[in-house]
TrEMBL record:
Protein name as catalogued: Bifunctional protein FolD
Upper classification of the organism: Bacteria, Pseudomonadati, Pseudomonadota, Alphaproteobacteria, Hyphomicrobiales
InterPro entries associated with the record: Aminoacid_DH-like_N_sf, NAD(P)-bd_dom_sf, THF_DH/CycHdrlase, THF_DH/CycHdrlase_cat_dom, THF_DH/CycHdrlase_NAD-bd_dom
Purpose of the protein: Catalyzes the oxidation of 5,10-methylenetetrahydrofolate to 5,10-methenyltetrahydrofolate and then the hydrolysis of 5,10-methenyltetrahydrofolate to 10-formyltetrahydrofolate.
UniProt keyword annotation of Amino-acid biosynthesis present: yes
Binding site for NADP(+): G168, H169, S170, I234
Listed Pfam families: THF_DHG_CYH, THF_DHG_CYH_C
Organism from which the protein derives: Mesorhizobium alhagi CCNWXJ12-2
GO annotations of cellular component type: cytosol
Domain Tetrahydrofolate dehydrogenase/cyclohydrolase NAD(P)-binding: 142-288
Length: 306
């Protein structure tokens, strides 16, 4: 089936719309003396992160957001990383900080994530940010989760009362998706590796989110006819000729014959994730500006001009 089939729920147009909004907001903030800047932190060489960072840089440039990549060696200690983050927390030119995952095993990711000041936490992964989602404050949510929900909304389906199944419950993808959907009024079932029959749950879903990391885990007989399938998986697969390609967690070729909507991989959730990261950067900037206003009264421009 060609990629222009209406069943494909493509990320490109959704991402382009978000990036256009971000660009307009970034331009006016810059004109007012607050140029947004995103800093990416990578520890060690992680191939899975390269594409993401490359797209972040390209789209940030498009949106008028400065982008700085900080690459640290794998031997970096947790203390050294924390010190670097504290420096960025204190630097008024840095709007947002994203720590690319995974980090080496000797670095405690939760503690490091908590070292990022909540006002600069553009990934929404600080425990305080995650907590806001539980309280139905949804304007800054973890990027991939928010992107997945944005794609479901693009179908036009009414989320209220919708039967949704989420396969995978990681803190960065599955759990925040479940919380976002609950806030939108959906009825949510979350499956994981101890679920007795993922298939039995998945078959009842009007919308199925899959974030596991296993190619072709979801087959056609696990999908309800007419469902929306959001495939979050990004898996590198080596072909017989030695070349590699990226596939999701869903057996797209068979599932697209059953589902009414399916996100392709690549070209689905990925591009929207990048767009949401940039949108979150503007949310963070606006929160910081509000704080400056509260703290320094009306002199925010003087402050920005330091
Ligand atoms: N498009 C994007 O922007 C992003 C894509 N990804 C991709 O999404 C996928 C998931 O990422 P992430 O959440 O970080 O991965 P994790 O490995 O952290 O989580 C995987 C989840 O899947 C569950 N699981 C494992 N096996 C099964 C199974 N057989 N049936 C049901 N559930 C199972 C695990 O449950 P348990 O813990 O109980 O074992 C766990 O909750 C990966 O392919 C990753 O590359 C990730 C981030 C961003
Ligand atoms: N803290 C953190 N947060 C993440 O969200 C996170 C992370 N770490 N580590 C790595 C994974 C992976 N990930 C991707 C996001 C978008 C694309 C993306 O834009 N993909 C394009 C690929 C296009 C191309 O191949 O050039 C697409 O799917 O169409 C890829 C990968 C986010 N992750």
């Amino acid at each position: 089936m060609p990629l222009d089939d209406t069943r494909y729920l493509k990320g490109g147009p959704v991402a382009a719309r978000i990036i256009a909004e971000v660009r307009a907001a970034a331009e006016s903030a810059t004109a007012e003396g607050f140029r947004p800047k995103l800093v990416s932190i990578t520890v060690g060489d992680v191939e899975a992160v390269d594409v993401y960072v490359r797209n972040q840089r390209a789209k940030a440039e498009l949106a008028g957001i400065d982008f700085e990549e900080r690459r640290f060696p794998a031997e970096l200690t947790a203390g050294e990383l924390e010190a670097a983050i504290h420096g960025m927390n204190a630097d008024p030119r840095v709007t947002g900080i994203i720590i690319q995952r995974p980090v080496p095993a000797h670095i405690p990711i939760k503690a490091i994530q908590a070292a990022v000041h909540p006002l600069k936490d553009v990934e929404g992964m600080h425990p305080a940010s995650i907590g806001n989602i539980v309280y139905n404050e949804l304007d800054l949510a973890p990027c991939t989760a928010a992107a997945s929900v944005e794609l479901l909304k693009a179908t036009g389906l009414d989320l209220k009362g919708l039967e949704v199944v989420v396969v995978g419950h990681s803190e960065i993808v599955g759990k925040p998706i479940a919380f976002l959907l609950m806030s939108e009024g959906a009825t949510v079932t979350v499956c994981h590796h101890m679920t007795r029959s993922v298939a039995a749950h998945a078959r009842r879903a009007d919308a199925l989110f899959v974030a596991v990391g296993k190619p072709r885990l979801i087959k056609a007989d696990m999908v309800k006819p007419g469902a929306a399938v959001i495939d979050i998986g990004i898996n590198a697969e080596t072909l017989a000729d030695g070349s590699t390609r990226i596939v999701g967690d869903v057996d797209t070729d068979s599932v697209k014959e059953v589902a009414s909507w399916i996100t392709p991989v690549p070209g689905g959730v990925g591009p929207v994730t990048v767009a949401i990261l940039l949108r979150n950067t503007m949310v963070a900037l606006n929160r910081q500006r509000a704080l400056y206003r509260e703290t320094y009264g009306t002199s925010e421009r003087q402050f920005a001009a330091e």
